[in-house]
Each structure stands twice: as C-alpha cells, then as structure tokens.
Amino acid sequence: MDHKILQATRELIDEIGYPALTVDRIATRAGVGKAAIYRRYASKAEMAFVATMDEQQVPAWTTTGSLYGDLLALVRVFHRRMATPAARHLAPALINELAVNPELDSRFKETFLAAEQAAFADIIEQAVARGELAGTVDPAMAHLLLLGSLASALYILNLPVDDALVTDLAAAAAAGITALAARHHSASDAVDERR
User: How is domain 57-194 classified at the architecture level of CATH?
Assistant: First the structure.
C-alpha cells in the first residue's frame, strides 16, 4: 500500500504539479482510502517529500580526481534533480512544512540531508588524501556552500540556472572549502605552538 500511495503521489506531481495535488486525488489514483494516507503521513507536504525526495538515494556521480571536478560532477547531478518542475513546486511548501513540523524536520535532517552531507564528507576526505586540502572541513559547511547556493538560486532568487552558473558555483565552493581548510589548519597549528 505504501508503494501505491507514493507512486500515485509522484505521478500526480508530475502531471498536475504540487499546488493542485490533493489527498483525494492521491487516494483515488492509489485505490486506497484517505484514512490509510492520513495514518501514514501528517500532511500533503510530508507525503510529497517522502515520495519525491526521501525515497531517492543521493544521485550517483563520478569521482574525477580533483576537489573542483568532484564538486562540479555532484552539483550537476543535483541540479538536474532540483530543477525539475516537481521540485520547484515542492521546495517552498516543504520549507514551510519543516518550519512547523518538528518530526518531519528531524526526518529530513536524519535521512535526506545526512545522505547529502555524507557525499560531501567523501569528497573532502578524498581531497585531503590527495593533498588538495590542508585539512578537513565540516561537510555541513561544504553542503551549505554548494547545494545551499544552488537551492537559493533555484527556489528563492528564481534565477535561470544553466551549466555556466553551476560551474561557477562549483568553483566558488571549491575555493571556499580550500580556504576554510587552510584557515582551520593554520588555527590548529597556532594552538599547537602555544602548548
């Protein structure tokens, strides 16, 4: 039954968009009662999130052997996913729902954001191992620098995000991550010298 509900939700978002999505339409498409849906999901936004984002894995991307190249490969994959009409409709509603639904906010952080930040942790770890970074950087900060900027461009500023902008975002994030790693490394060295 869960699969039917989530599949119906995805299909309807693609066909009619998130604003026109209703629990009645989902129930009819899935062939289930509304009560079955409400037992599983507290809101339309939560159901749409689970159907379109939470069930999906972090998109596959190919490592390139450089910090900038890995960030560019990752952000290109995320751009394709985040720029869809369904994502553009759902993101503002989801942001609003996260602000008022602590349970959904926790689940969002523990699943979706944690998986994304794990991808950044891998990229940073590989860059440190290659000697590109002076030390590690908090994956949450790297995530904010790259995907936070992409989300802002797509969902808040409504910019026309093309590959040139995506490329610039990757370059800016790589520079920021490199600068943070150097700053943290220098601060760590200064603490060691005082001891």
Answer: Orthogonal Bundle (1.10)
Residue 51 — pLDDT band, cuts 50, 70, 90? confident
Residue pLDDT, tens place only, 150-160: 999 999 999 99
For position 92, what pLDDT does the model report?
Answer: 82
d(CA 176, CA 168): 12
Give yes or no for residue 144 having a pLDDT over 70. yes
Query: What residue ranges do the domains of the chain occupy?
Result: 1-40, 57-194
pLDDT for the residue 195: 57
* 1-40 carries CATH number 1.10.10.60: yes
- Locate tokens 């900038």: which residue? 68
As a whole number, mean pLDDT of residues 72-95 equals: 86
DSSP string, the chain: -HHHHHHHHHHHHHHH-STT--HHHHHHHHT--HHHHHHH-SSHHHHHHIIIIITSPPPP----SSHHHHHHHHHHHHHHHHTSHHHHHHHHHHHHHHHH-HHHHHHIIIIIIHHHHHHHHHHHHHHHHHTSSSS---HHHHHIIIIIHHHIIIIIS-----HHHHHHHHHHHHHHHHHHHHHHHHHHHHHHHH-
